[in-house]
Amino acid sequence: TTRQPTPGLDYLIIGAGVCGLYQLHQLLELGVSVRIVDANAGLGGTWYNNRYPGCRFDSESYTYQYSFSQELLDEWDWKERFAPQAETLSYLEYVADKFDLRPHISLNTRVERAEWIEDGLHWLVTMADGEQVRARFVLCAMGLLSVPTYPRVPGLGTFGGVETHTFDWPDDLDVTGKRVAVIGTGASGVQVITDIADKVEQLTVLQRDANWCAPLGNQPITPEEMARLRASYDEIFDWCRETPAGFIHRPDRTLSTDVTREERLRHWNDLYDNGHGAALYMGNYRDTMMEAGPNRELSEFVADRIRQRVEDPEVAELLIPKDHGFGNKRVAGESGFYEVFNQDNVELVDLMAHPIREVTETGIRLDLADGGVRDLELDVIVYATGFDAVTGPFDRIDFRGVDGVRLKEQWLGGPETCVGVQVTNFPNLFMLVGPQSGSATANFPRGIEDVVNWMTETVRHIEADGVVRFEGRREAEIAWVEHVREINSLLLLAHSKSWFNGHNINLDRDDKPRVMVYLGGAPRYRRRLQEEIDQGYPSFELKTAADLGRE
Ligand code: NA7
After folding, report:
1. In what order do the strands lie in the sheet with 363-367?
2. What's the Cα-to-Cα distance from 516 to each of 144, 283, 327, 481, 539, rounded to whole Å?
C-alpha cells in the first residue's frame, strides 16, 4: 500500500550516524528544509548497532569527535583513550540533544526505494512502511559497514541456541558460563574474543585467515590529562588534518632502509610496547606500507612478538598471517588478544584445515582431514564475519536514476563515482560516505567533516544560484576511477583480500577486486573537493530552472 507522498523536502539525509548528524546540523544552520531518516530505533549508526562486548574505538577518542563547536569541545570529557561503544553512543546522543537535532530525525524508517522524477526534478523516496517523501536532493550517509554478512554454510538459522552477528548483538545476551564459538578474527572478532574469553565456560575461535593486530594501549584519561588534551585541541585537529588518514599518527619521512637494523628493531619494539592505536601501522617508516621488502621485515618482527606471547608454538603460527603482510589489511587494535589463547578454556580452530560443514541444531559441524566430522556443542554462535562493505548499503536500496536505470546494475562491474560524491545518471543524489571517497578510509569524523563541509558549501551554491539539477559528468567519473586506481596501487593495502578492495562481497573470495576506497589521503582529497568549489564545479553539470526552460 502506497500512501500519499508527504509534502516535499529540500534535503533528505539517509542515516543518523556520525556523518548524517553533522550534515543535519550544518544544513539546519543554513535554514533549508532537511530531515534524516534512519532504519534503526536509535541514532548513532555504527555506535548504535555494534553493542557486542568489547566494542570500542581503534582511533584515539580525542581525535574521534566533532570539531565544529568550541562549546561542545569544552563540555565533553573523554574517559578513556579509546572509548568503548557505550561512551561513544552517549556522546552522539549528547550532540543530538545539545543541538536539538532529534525533532529532525525519523527513526525506525528504512528507505526501500528512491526514484528520480525528471519531470519534477526531485527524488521520490519510499520507506519500508509505504510512506513516501519527495526531496529535491538526497544525501547518503548509510555508513560503510552497515550490512552484515554471514558465512555461506548450510544450516544457518537452524541452531537451537543463540546465533548473532557482532553487528546486532542482543541487549539481553549474557555469555557468562556459556559454550561460545566466535567465527572471524577481524577487528570485531578480536575485540569480542578478548572481552568474553574469561567469562565463558568454553570459547572456540574459528579462524579462516589470521589477521594482523597491534597493541591498542588503552588507558583511562585522568581529569588532568583531559585538561591538557583540551588545551591542545586546535593543534590536534590541525595535525590530524595533515596526516594521510586523519589520525594522530603520521608515516615517518624516514625510510626503514635509512637506518640500521638495530635501530629499526629498537623503534619497532618501542612502537609495539609504548605506542598506541595505529602507531605501528600508520606511524611507521614510510616504506613499510609501500614496499614488499621492508613490509616483510616488519611483518617478521610482529610475528616474533606474537610467538613470544602465545605459549603453544602451533597456535602461535596459526595466529600469524601467511597470506598478507602487516598492514596490508586493516590492522586490529588488541588488548591482550594473544594471551587469550593461553587459557585452558579457549581453543583456536583453523578453518582452512577444518572447514565448517554445517550449522546444526546443537552447534557447528566441522569437516576433518580424514573425512570424518567433529561436532562442536555450543550455546552461542557469534558471527564476527564482517560486512558487505562500502557498496552494500547502496545495493540494499533500490535507487532508480535517469530513465529508471538501477544503481546496483550500473555498478555491477564495480562502483564508479564522480570524485567520490556523485554517480552519473543519478542527479541530485550525493554520497557523503561511499565508494572512492576520502571520507571512507580516514579516521571517520575527520574524513566526513571534509565531505560534509564541501556538501554544505555546495548547498549554499545550489540555493544561492537556484540550481535544480546537479549531476556528475561521465568524463570526470572515468578520470576519477582511473586516478583512484593509480594512486591506490602505491600502497600494499590495495592488493590484499580485504574489504577495502571488495574482496568480501557476498563472501565470495574470488570476487573481482574493485576500486572501493580512495587511498590517496585525506589532505589530497580535501584539496580535490575544494578545487571543484573554486573552479565552479567543472566535474559536474549544474542546471537552473531557466537552463532547463522550466521557468
Ligand atoms: P572484517 O575485518 O571484514 O573481518 C571479518 C572476519 O571474518 C575475518 O577474520 C574473515 O576472515 C572472517 N570471515 C569472513 N567470512 C568468513 C567465512 N565465511 N568463514 C569464516 N570466516 C569468515 O570485519 P570486522 O567486523 O572484524 O571489522 C570491520 C571493520 O570494522 C574493521 O576494518 C574496522 O574498520 C572496524 P578472512 O580474513 O576473510 O579469511
Report:
1. 356-359, 363-367, 373-377
2. 10, 24, 17, 10, 20
Element (H, E) at 206: strand 202-207
Whole-angstrom CA distances from 443 to 11, 87, 133 are 26, 17, 33
pLDDT tens-place string over residues 223-251: 999 999 999 999 999 999 999 999 999 99
The number of the ligand 1 atom at minimal distance from the alpha carbon of 503 is: 38
CB atoms within 10 A of CB 250: 15
What's the gap in Å between 41 CA and the centre of ligand 1?
Answer: 26
Distance (Å) from CA 49 to ligand 1 centroid: 17
Looking up cell 568454553 gives 202
DSSP letters along 438-496, please? TTSSS-HHHHHHHHHHHHHHHHHHHHHHTEEEEEE-HHHHHHHHHHHHHHHTTSGGGGS
pLDDT tops 90 at residue 335 = yes
The rounded Å distance from CA 385 to ligand 1 centre is: 4
Task: Assess contact for 395 and 408: CB atoms under 8 A.
Answer: yes
Nearest CA to ligand 1 atom 26: 186
Distances (CA, A) of 294 to 329, 492, 502: 16, 11, 26
Look up cell 542515516; give the residue. Answer: 15
Nearest residue by C-alpha to atom 19 in ligand 1: 151
Strand pairing class (467-472; 179-183) = unpaired
Cα 247 from Cα 242, distance rounded (Å): 9
Ligand 1 center from residue 118 Cα (angstroms): 41
CB under 8 Å to 534, separation ≥6 — which residues? none
**Model confidence at 2: pLDDT above 60:** no
- In this structure, the residues whose C-beta lies within 6 A of any atom of ligand 1 are 145, 151, 166, 183-189, 208-209, 211, 330, 351, 384-386, 499, 504, 507
* Residue 382 three-state SS: strand
Say yes or no: ipTM exceeds 0.85: yes
The residue whose CA is least distant from atom 20 of ligand 1 is 208
* Average pLDDT rounded to a whole number, residues 45-74: 97
Whose Cα sits closest to atom 38 in ligand 1?
209
From the alpha carbon of 153, which atom of ligand 1 is closest? 18
Q: Ligand 1 center to residue 186 CA distance, Å?
A: 4
Closest CA to 373 of 385, 358, 361: 358
Confidence (pLDDT) at 35: 98
Q: Quote the pTM value.
A: 0.96
Pocket test for ligand 1, best of 58, 85, 188, 195 (most atoms within 8 A of CB): 188
- The Cα–Cα gap between 453 and 22 comes to 9
